[in-house]
Design a protein that fits this description.
CATH architecture of the largest domain: 3-Layer(aba) Sandwich
Mean pLDDT: 96
Structural class: alpha/beta
CATH topology of the largest domain: Rossmann fold
CATH class of the largest domain: Alpha Beta
Oligomer: single chain
Strand order of the largest sheet: 5-4-19-18-17-6-7-15-16
Strand content: 15-25%
Distance between the termini: 42 Å
Number of domains: 3
Helix content: 25-40%
């Protein structure tokens, strides 16, 4: 940056899947000083960008040059029989292409964080199709918004203020013309803000969805209570859904990770499809990491499949539950791992972490995390959307251009450049 002080407008926030692109970032002496329009988490991400940083590449805890770290990573991958490349959901799209190339070159597995969050969403969509819309369409048209198994007030702080409580083209007074419902097993922060809270029994999402489908189709059911809800209440809910002019169903991990998993999502999709026989409805997953949707899309572009892809036979094969990261590690089929912009040690099961501690791990991340403590090789990276540009995909599928607002620390490169260095050297070494 040539200017000491600068104000950047329309900067996307690289925290959650909302990718709010209306931030105003004030920079002074290559440090972010102010974040206007950002939520509390966004402020922490931008203003705290320099905290807890990895500043030097390390091998076995010893500082080394970037070239030495890359050389060690290449040796690990070259000697590995079945490596895993994992993460990708918190970095930009250009970095992804080299991850897929590395996986293909070494005959390994490539997976992203979808396999531990919205994997069932993709499986449900593969069974039943997608009924989707944009966030802008929700803001302009929806008169009923439902959050099912999702708590955006905590996980996506600006989702409601920016898209649901803001007036739109056809909804001029959202407080009176748009209702917010929450379906969950407990009263969350979002439920306290909602116009209606529908509390269901733990693990009964599938039953409730199937009963709503039956009632919408006009079937009489010989039951009195389903999922903790009386059948008369369910009939009233079904009738309201049919009479809505434009509805949107947002759903989170409370639906995808409860009993039923992808069958829950499949039933929700079919419910929305049924409702479209009477009115207009769409649905959308509440994606967590800011570019997990992008990881699914780039993986599909490059391999034909959205996640959990194996190249051990020289061509891509797709099998969630077999080639997904947790499952492959749990069976101890993976003998090396490249972790990119994720923290599996902080989130994976204990038995999987035990195996990770037995194999060489190459960790590429801007900051110190739990995985960096078990990694044999640590390579610091620039923070995408703050220290380097790129592209990312919002939860509704809209691609957005990320902005560079400051320079990274000396000697630190973007993920895409680090992965390209590893790929180029690995390709050269494997020809020998």
């Amino acid at each position: 940056m040539t200017e000491t002080n600068h104000i950047f407008e329309n900067v996307p926030c690289t925290f959650c899947g909302c990718l709010c692109d209306d931030l105003i970032i004030e920079v002074s002496d290559n440090k972010v000083m102010k974040n206007t329009n950002g939520c509390a988490i966004s402020n922490e991400r931008f203003l705290g960008h320099a905290e807890n940083r990895l500043l030097r590449p390390t091998v076995d805890g010893t500082d080394v040059s970037l070239e030495q770290a890359v050389d060690r990573a290449v040796k690990i991958l070259k000697s590995s029989r079945h490596p895993l490349i994992y993460g990708l959901s918190s970095t930009e799209n250009d970095a992804h292409r080299y991850a897929y190339r590395i996986a293909e070159l070494v005959g390994g597995i490539v997976d992203n964080t979808t396999s531990v969050c919205h994997g069932p969403t993709i499986l449900g969509a593969q069974d039943s199709g997608e009924v989707t819309a944009s966030l802008a369409e929700t803001r302009h048209r929806a008169d009923l918004v439902i959050y099912w198994g999702s708590n955006p007030a905590a996980a996506h702080p600006r989702h409601i203020p920016r898209y649901i409580r803001q007036p739109g083209e056809y909804i001029t007074d959202p407080k009176t013309e748009r209702d917010i419902w929450v379906v969950d097993i407990r009263k969350t922060t979002t439920a306290r803000m909602a116009d209606r809270f529908i509390q269901i029994t733990l693990g009964t999402d599938l039953e409730v969805l199937l009963v709503l489908r039956a009632l919408i189709r006009g079937h009489e059911l010989d039951v009195s209570v389903v999922g903790g809800l009386k059948i008369d209440e369910l009939k009233e809910i079904a009738q309201t859904l049919k009479e809505t002019k434009y509805g949107v169903l947002f759903f989170g991990l409370g639906l995808t990770q409860s009993r039923g998993r992808h069958r829950n999502v499949d039933a929700a999709i079919r419910l929305v499809q049924d409702l479209n026989s009477y009115t207009k409805w769409n649905m959308m997953p509440m994606r967590g990491h800011y570019n997990v949707s992008g990881a699914n899309k780039t993986c599909t572009w490059q391999t034909g499949f959205p996640y959990a892809v194996d190249y051990s036979r020289g061509y891509p094969r797709y099998q969630p539950g077999e080639y997904s990261a947790v499952d492959a590690l749990a069976r101890e089929e993976v003998d090396a791992m490249v972790n990119i912009a994720a923290d599996p040690v902080a989130h994976f099961p204990e038995s999987v972490i035990a195996h990770l501690q037995k194999i060489p791990v190459i960790n590429i991340d801007p900051k110190v995390n739990m995985t960096s403590y078990v990694a044999e090789v640590n390579i610091p990276a620039a923070i995408a959307g703050i220290e380097c540009d790129g592209a990312a995909t919002r939860m509704d599928g809209l691609p957005l251009y990320l902005r560079k607002v400051i320079d990274p620390p000396d000697g630190i490169l973007p993920d895409r450049d680090i992965l390209r260095m590893i790929y180029d050297l690995l390709k050269k070494e494997m020809k020998k």
